[in-house]
């Protein structure tokens, strides 16, 4: 069988590294240690775990693995040339170097490069055996092996005779890691960000030994994350140590979340996915202690309060000279209170670029269709250069007739464009009622959940999620990436506003509840109504809510309920009467301990911590 380390990024390469080695020499020693280090560094390596009999041709699986690897590492050990299969691998590797642009690095493990290049020493003895009684076909193959060894022996690589294998492997991982791009996905149809990029780069002194700390701020949907991603990708090859932390706001709602972000940051820059921390204070010390690594490139995306910077990147003294730290935020105060950061406000698109971006989404081309120029100008007037609004409105109007455009634009007249939620509402209003309900479920409960889990819950609620999710994705109201449902923060906030709008002062009449104070008010005052379909109460560092017997009595349409451990205190006569529940996650309780009148017949998802 064959094994590979962590998953590779989407590209023409299936693996980051292919390991070629002589099993009897290094399988359980050096190569095993090297493979483990590659895996810990999140470098996707392939090694053959099967001991092929001597003389057997290499398998199709191995050939595909070699062809699909970005880099080949050849461990030339004393007996490497004894193995015909190793030599066949080598020939294939050198072919891929010439034809596919594969990078090849030899490791001379207790052998001299001249032994490999000239087939002397143990390599010469091996070839004497190969040439003994060789027929013409075998002689031809031997010459191919010799040519491959000569070429590989001339390549720049790594040599170990004496010294620490640990430090030797650490050096190899550092050199290999910088060759494997860990770029972040930017997306398609990136238009009009050149000026923003120019202004941010002016704040970064990439050639200096000083630490550059830059913050990009602006409203949601203006393109802050896109700017940061493009700069990160552009500079990536200049840094051996780097990390892009997405969605800091979402991932750090409490100290546990901050701890996970610190671990992710350290795992990235150390290339060690086993890194574990005990608390955030230890995390700060650990980040500061890695200053010796030299310069690092770090992006902290969507930071929502100054406190979080204090745990992740508070001072230039934390980092080595030449480091670049970039922060994106909607909250300018994050940057104002930390004098180490220079700040830049992301600007909207100028008219020509706004028209191009809108046209790419509305017409699938970079200019308006005939007879739509005036209508497009009206859209641009309302969008005011906001990229997210241009993308959403363009996607909404795609393949619509002029009358539908006119109707949409007439509606825009009554919606203040400075209120991003109301602009985004146009796409929401364009879907049917079932899609709207699914959108609100995602906004209130399922953002960043796995698509399979959400689909199962929604199917249990008599939706057709394969259709609804597809429509929402097409309308740019959600996106489904790597099996998870994503939603832009501005769209989520719009969903919250929609839920609140009918009775803004009475959460007991809302269809969904997700904020602690609203839920506490509803449950302690028995304000719940039949309107409530879902509730999520899963916060840390809050006072448990004492529930009265009838707190849920009127919520007979409740279909989604998540309650974290120790979030509530139940009275002995507590009732949970809803027969509509499809999802229940109540930390600390299992089915056997639920009230006797609890109806579990329709549950489709019951997480493991809530099961019997």
> What portion of residues belong to β-strands?
5-15%
Query: Can you count the helices?
Result: 25
- For the termini, the CA-CA separation is 39 Å
Low-confidence stretches: 6-10, 51-55, 415-419, 608-612
The total strand number stands at: 19
Task: Please state the CA-atom Rg, rounded to the nearest Å.
Answer: 30 Å
Q: Give the CA-based shape.
A: globular
Structural class: alpha/beta
Largest β sheet strand count, sense and barrel closure: 6 strands, mixed
Mean pLDDT comes to: 85
Features:
612 residues; alpha/beta; five-stranded parallel beta sheet; 14% strand; globular
Q: How does this model look, in words?
A:
- The chain has 612 residues and is an alpha/beta fold.
- The chain is 42% helix and 14% strand.
- It contains 25 helices and 19 strands.
- The strands form five sheets. It has a six-stranded mixed sheet, with helices on both faces.
- Helix 2 crosses helix 8 (165-177) and helix 17 packs parallel to helix 19.
- It starts with a strand and ends in a 26-residue tail after the last strand.
SSE blueprint and pairings:
Blueprint: E1 2-4, E2 15-20, H1 23-26, H2 30-40, E3 45-48, H3 60-67, E4 69-76, H4 84-100, E5 103-109, H5 113-118, H6 122-131, H7 136-153, E6 158-160, H8 165-177, H9 194-202, E7 212-217, H10 224-235, E8 241-245, H11 248-251, H12 255-270, H13 280-289, E9 296-300, H14 306-312, E10 324-329, H15 333-336, E11 342-345, H16 351-362, H17 373-383, H18 387-397, H19 402-412, H20 420-429, H21 433-446, H22 451-460, H23 465-474, E12 479-481, E13 484-486, H24 489-500, E14 512-513, H25 516-524, E15 534-537, E16 545-547, E17 560-563, E18 568-570, E19 583-586
Parallel strand pairs: 2-3, 2-4, 4-5, 5-6, 7-10, 7-11, 8-9, 9-10, 14-15, 15-17, 16-18, 17-19
Antiparallel strand pairs: 1-3, 12-13
């Amino acid at each position: 069988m064959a094994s590979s380390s962590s998953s590779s990024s989407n590209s023409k390469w299936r693996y980051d590294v292919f390991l070629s080695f002589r099993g009897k020499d290094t399988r359980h020693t050096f190569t095993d240690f090297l493979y483990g280090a590659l895996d810990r560094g999140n470098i996707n390596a392939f090694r053959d775990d099967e001991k092929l009999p001597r003389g057997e041709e290499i398998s199709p699986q191995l050939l595909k693995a070699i062809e699909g690897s970005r880099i080949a590492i050849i461990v030339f050990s004393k007996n490497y040339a004894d193995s015909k299969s190793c030599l066949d691998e080598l020939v294939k590797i050198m072919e891929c170097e010439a034809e596919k642009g594969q990078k090849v690095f030899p490791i001379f493990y207790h052998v001299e490069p001249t032994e490999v290049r000239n087939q002397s020493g143990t390599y010469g003895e091996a070839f004497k055996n190969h040439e003994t009684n060789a027929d013409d076909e075998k002689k031809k193959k031997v010459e191919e092996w010799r040519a491959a060894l000569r070429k590989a022996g001339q390549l720049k690589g790594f040599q170990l005779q004496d010294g620490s294998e640990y430090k030797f492997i650490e050096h190899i991982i550092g050199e290999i890691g910088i060759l494997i791009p860990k770029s972040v996905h930017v997306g398609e149809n990136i238009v009009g960000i050149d000026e923003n990029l120019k202004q941010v780069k002016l704040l970064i002194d990439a050639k200096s030994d000083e630490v550059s700390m830059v913050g990009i701020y602006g409203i949601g949907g203006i393109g802050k994350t896109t700017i940061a991603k493009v700069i990160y990708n552009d500079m990536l090859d200049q840094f051996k140590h780097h990390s892009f932390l997405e969605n800091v706001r979402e991932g750090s709602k409490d100290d546990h979340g901050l701890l996970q972000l610190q671990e992710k940051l350290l795992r990235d820059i150390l290339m060690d996915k086993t890194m574990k921390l005990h608390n955030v204070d230890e995390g700060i010390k650990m980040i500061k202690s890695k200053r010796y690594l030299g310069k690092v490139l770090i992006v902290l995306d969507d930071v929502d309060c100054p406190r979080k910077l204090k745990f992740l990147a508070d001072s230039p003294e934390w980092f080595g000279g030449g480091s670049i730290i970039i922060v994106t935020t909607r909250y300018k105060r994050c940057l104002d209170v930390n004098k180490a950061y220079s700040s830049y406000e992301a600007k909207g698109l100028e008219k020509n670029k706004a028209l191009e971006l809108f046209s790419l989404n509305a017409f699938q081309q970079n200019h308006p269709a005939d007879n739509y120029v005036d209508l497009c100008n009206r859209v641009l007037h309302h969008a005011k250069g906001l990229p997210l609004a241009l993308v959403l409105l363009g996607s909404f109007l795609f393949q619509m007739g002029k009358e539908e455009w006119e109707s949409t634009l007439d509606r825009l007249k009554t919606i203040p464009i400075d209120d991003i939620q109301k602009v985004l509402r146009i796409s929401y209003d364009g879907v049917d009622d079932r899609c709207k309900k699914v959108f609100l479920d995602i906004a209130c409960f399922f953002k960043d959940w796995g698509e399979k889990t959400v689909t199962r819950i929604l199917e249990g609620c008599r939706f057709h999620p394969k259709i609804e999710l597809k429509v929402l994705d097409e309308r740019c109201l959600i996106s489904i990436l790597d099996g998870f449902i994503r939603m832009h923060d501005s769209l989520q906030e719009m969903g919250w506003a929609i839920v609140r709008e009918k009775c803004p002062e009475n959460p007991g009449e809302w269809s969904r509840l997700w904020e602690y104070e609203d839920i506490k008010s509803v449950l302690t005052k028995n304000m719940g109504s039949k309107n409530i379909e879902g509730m999520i109460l899963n916060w840390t560092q809050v006072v448990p809510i004492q529930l009265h017997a009838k707190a849920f009595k009127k919520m007979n349409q409740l279909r989604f309920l998540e309650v974290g451990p120790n979030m509530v205190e139940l009275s002995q006569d507590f009732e949970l009467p809803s027969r509509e529940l499809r999802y229940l996650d109540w930390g600390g309780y299992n089915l056997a301990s639920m009230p006797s009148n609890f109806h579990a017949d329709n549950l489709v998802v019951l997480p493991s911590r809530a099961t019997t």
